[in-house]
Write a structure and sequence with these properties.
This protein is mainly alpha-helical. Helix content is 69%, strand content 0%. α1 (13-39) packs across α3 (64-79) and α2 packs across α3. The longest helix has 27 residues, at 13-39. The radius of gyration is 15 Å and the shape is globular.
């Protein structure tokens, strides 16, 4: 059985700023990953990770989990043809 719970985040102003900064970094990274996928005609998830993971982490100062998530979600969109 699955249970879905809706929650509302109530961050402090400092936490809200950090969340906004992280989301902005993830969006910028996803745009760049999409560009790389198209430029190099990369269709495989692992290949895209090989080309982008290090730079996504370093350039946008994202943690490993966030970097992997950005690449996976972007790859999924590229493969499904949702990104042009």
């Amino acid at each position: 059985m699955k249970l879905t719970v809706q929650v509302k985040l109530l961050p402090t102003p400092v936490q809200a700023a950090a969340l906004e900064e992280t989301l902005h970094a993830c969006n910028e990274a996803a745009t760049w990953v999409s560009y790389v996928a198209f430029e190099k005609d990369i269709k495989r998830n692992f290949a895209l990770r090989e080309h982008t993971y290090g730079q996504v982490k370093d350039r946008w100062n994202l943690g490993a989990q966030a970097a992997q998530h950005v690449i996976k979600k972007t790859w999924s969109r590229v493969v499904d043809g949702e990104v042009s």
